[in-house]
């Protein structure tokens, strides 16, 4: 091709520059306003991977809540469990006394061996100096007569529970010592939820990574004028673990330290009576797959499978994070985690421990016939 004269090149360049701007960039007109809450872009990234809707191995969900069932509604739950490959569900909302006995009886009649129920404490009369002794006695009755296999402590202890003078009752209040001791003597675990995600205790501003959730659900915020700091609440919980080393504590939600696995590892090293579970926080290990995989391998004997809310369609995120090596896939609730997930690709022997072997060791009396 012959070389073009310089003059012709200049004319060509000027012609291109004179093209209408509309031919060079997308049209720019008034744009309809779009709140950040609705912004949910579909990733253009093309990577291999697939959804997983059924667990590779039968699993035990150690963190769930079931209330007010009839035989028909319970059978529906069992059908959904079967589809997920969930062998056993731990119902943490067992209450106490007659209510507990009725729940356990219904579940055993409808689906023998498929449900395990944890008792709960009744805080009525907590100012009575004998409350702790009575609560421990009731816990023993709930285990021996009611069929409870553990004790669940809700987050109201430490956050909301107050005495007759209006003073906050800390998690390590000594009036609970007889309860923790009784659980250890009975050989049952205490699954305890203390505080909330640490971001809930921070100002709800542009620097808070949970801004979207706290804006959509402002009641979840824990402002400093109404609640103690996160670190103070967690220190109270850890003090209980240290004091009652003969009792096994299942620290719910990765102890709210899924964002700081180095610190959680220090707790695991210091407190051999503490195990943990992943209910409602799978988005934390899933955004740090290299660090989280090392953590799961190191503490493979002390991590349990849990989900928290009973939404069967959401379990797939857990399966995919634990089982696959997939990259950059979405979480099932944007307001919990707007970031993408990465799979840990756990080895089968570790996966079995997380899915069922650790729970079989920690929770007494589970039906082992469901598992390989």
Structure in words:
It contains twelve helices and eight strands. The strands form two sheets. A five-stranded parallel beta sheet has the order 4-5-6-7-8. A three-stranded parallel beta sheet has the order 1-2-3. It has helices spanning 6-17, 71-84, 97-110, 131-144, 156-159, 177-186, 211-216, 230-243, 261-270, 289-298, 315-323, 348-362; strands at 59-64, 86-91, 115-117, 151-153, 190-192, 249-251, 274-277, 303-304. It is globular, with a radius of gyration of 26 Å. The chain has one domain (58-370): Alpha-Beta Barrel (TIM Barrel). Helix 9 (261-270) links the parallel strand 6 and strand 7 (274-277). The model is unreliable at 9-24 (pLDDT under 50).
CATH architecture: Alpha-Beta Barrel
Order of helices and strands: HEHEHEHEHHEHHEHEHEHH
N- and C-termini, Cα separation: 74 Å
Runs in which pLDDT lies below 50 for 5 or more consecutive residues are 9-24
Characteristic terms for this protein:
12 helices, 35% helix, 372 residues, TIM Barrel, five-stranded parallel sheet, 8% strand, three-stranded parallel sheet, alpha/beta
Element layout with pairings:
Elements lengths: L5 H12 L41 E6 L6 H14 L1 E6 L5 H14 L4 E3 L13 H14 L6 E3 L2 H4 L17 H10 L3 E3 L18 H6 L13 H14 L5 E3 L9 H10 L3 E4 L11 H10 L4 E2 L10 H9 L24 H15 L10
Parallel strand pairs: 1-2, 2-3, 4-5, 5-6, 6-7, 7-8
């Amino acid at each position: 091709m012959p070389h073009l004269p310089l003059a012709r090149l200049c004319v060509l360049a000027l012609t291109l520059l004179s093209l209408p701007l509309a031919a060079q960039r997308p049209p720019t007109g008034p744009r309809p306003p779009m709140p950040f809450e609705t912004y949910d872009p579909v990733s253009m990234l093309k990577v291999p991977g697939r959804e997983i809707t059924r667990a590779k191995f039968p699993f035990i969900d150690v963190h769930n809540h079931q209330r007010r069932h009839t035989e028909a509604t319970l059978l529906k739950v069992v059908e959904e469990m079967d589809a997920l490959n969930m062998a056993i569900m731990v119902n943490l909302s067992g209450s106490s006394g007659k209510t507990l006995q009725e729940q356990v009886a219904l579940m055993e009649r409808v689906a023998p061996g498929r449900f395990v129920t944890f008792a709960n404490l009744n805080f009525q009369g907590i100012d009575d100096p004998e409350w702790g002794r009575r609560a421990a006695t009731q816990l023993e009755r709930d285990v021996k007569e009611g069929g409870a296999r553990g004790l669940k402590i809700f987050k109201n202890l430490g956050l909301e529970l107050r005495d007759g003078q209006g003073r906050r009752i800390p998690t390590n209040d000594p009036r609970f010592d007889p309860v923790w001791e009784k659980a250890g003597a009975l050989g049952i675990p205490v699954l305890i939820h203390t505080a909330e995600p640490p971001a809930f205790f921070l100002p709800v501003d542009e620097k808070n990574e949970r801004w979207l959730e706290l804006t959509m659900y402002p009641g979840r915020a824990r402002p400093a004028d109404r609640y103690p700091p996160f670190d103070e609440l967690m220190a109270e919980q850890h003090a209980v673990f240290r004091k009652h080393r003969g009792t096994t504590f299942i620290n719910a939600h990765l102890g709210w330290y899924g964002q700081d696995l180095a610190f959680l590892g220090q707790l695991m090293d210091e407190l051999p009576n503490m195990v943990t579970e992943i209910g409602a926080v799978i988005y934390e290990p899933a955004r740090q797959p290299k660090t989280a995989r090392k953590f799961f391998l190191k503490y493979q004997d002390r991590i349990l499978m849990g989900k928290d809310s009973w939404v069967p369609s959401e379990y797939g995120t857990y399966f995919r994070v634990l089982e696959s090596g997939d990259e950059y896939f979405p979480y099932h609730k944007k307001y919990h985690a707007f970031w993408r997930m990465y799979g840990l690709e756990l080895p089968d022997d570790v996966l079995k421990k997380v899915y069922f072997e650790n729970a079989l060791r920690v929770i007494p009396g589970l039906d082992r016939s469901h598992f390989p």
